[in-house]
Amino acid sequence: AVATTATTTLPVATPEQGSFATPAKRQAAKQRQTLLVAEDNRVNQKLCKKMLAQHTVHCVSNGQEAVDKFTSAPPHTYDAVLLDMNMPVLDGRAAAAQIREHARAQQDDVRIVAMTG
Q: 90 falls in which pLDDT band (50, 70, 90)?
């Protein structure tokens, strides 16, 4: 039997950004986000889309596709990138490094979330 547990809370404030304690910041946190999800399992892709239905979700099947999609998009297109750590072609850790490098060059402060199961 295969079990999947998923908990999602977006967005996340860093200490430098402060918390979402004020009503205005809480409202901003509820706004629609654009997310890039890299997951090689089609069932998990569907689960992510369903769980994140209030957001715009773009799914790809491996880390290289995630890097290609992120780097070909205009800066600040994605609010967060969710990466499965165990994918074919390019794993989540390597994809995260390439995405982070590109994001820094573009002054894009995208959040990267590691997923594993």
A: very high
pTM of this prediction exceeds 0.85:
no
User: What's residue 117's pLDDT?
Assistant: 75
Give the C-alpha separation, 31 to 48, whole Å: 18
CA gap 116, 77 in Å, rounded: 24
Query: Which residue's entry shows tokens 């090689």?
Result: 40
CA distance 57 to 80: 10
CB 80 within 8 A of CB 33: yes
Long-range CB contact pairs, 49-56, < 8 A, 24+: 51/6, 51/8, 52/8, 52/10, 55/10, 55/79, 56/32
